[in-house]
Fold:
Amino acid sequence: MFHLPANLMFGFVRKQPSGLTILNVSVMNWFAVVACILFLVLSAGCLEQVTNKEVRAQRLDKQLICPVCPGETIDQSNVEVAKQMKDLVRFQLDSGWTDAEILGFFVDRYGQGILAAPPAAGFSLLVWLVPVVIFPMGLVSLILFIHFNRRKSALVASKTADITVDLSKYLPKVDKELGMSNRRYHHEE
Structure:
């Protein structure tokens, strides 16, 4: 077995009084930290390039409807057409196309129906504006309905609270009609 002399190891090894040669632990810890940091920095740089492109591709996949599967975007669909569209999106991204150019390409081929969200322009603008207008109107209508119903029921309750009916004179008639003539009611005043 070949051993390097301790003076050639630049302080990474040291001789023990027993004659054993061991590595300097503090220097090894320092090298381990530097190696880990170097690994993380280099791998993060590679990962960022792949992740950025893939994130863009996945975002575009979620914006395109599969022409075969109604209501599914191509990122949800597993049919062959959706797979081909996903591959085409990635190829166009590799070729340097912008997101708008890629979406425009598919709109030219398939029409506006290929987009998962209609554009906020022209007639499609109604799809975006109607909920914004209808929701507040519905909310105001509901609040007014509840307000007026509470007021109306409070008014009816206050009017009926003043009315007291003496039913004692009617009870014998009801008993007679029901065949319960042996019961007697007395009104105490």
